[in-house]
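The pair is quoted verbatim underneath.

:::
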Amino acid sequence: MKKILLISLSLCTALLASDTPTRTGIFPEKEMKTQNKEIASLVAKEITSTLPQIIDKYTTLSSVKNEDTTLVYTFEINTGVKSDEAIQKEDRTRMRQAVTTGICQSSRKFLEAGINTSYVYVSAKTKVRLFQFDIAQKDCPVVVN
């Protein structure tokens, strides 16, 4: 009796599976882009509900939005007595490297899926845009697992 039940169950599963359309091959690019836009929009909405977020004594995450399939994070920097020009000149390279390394590690799955990240830094005092770092998968070193 057990064998008949197992054979029947297997036969039903096989018949149901044969009627179920399956998708093989590469996911269509247009559908993938639409899905990625939706994911980016949902992530932006979720993070926005927790803003502003103080990152450290100089930096506050003030907004997150999606532009197409890119998540755009805007940070305000309290530059203290340093001028905007001095910050732009002295800190750009160091910050680009730190931001790129951090995003490549923390957002690897998003980047692999085609959801890019942009970090925009503005002066908390003057609201002048100091930096913008756009990071895509191509900007990250290849990780071997």
Remarks:
- The domain at 29-139 is CATH 3.30.300.250 (GMP Synthetase; Chain A, domain 3).
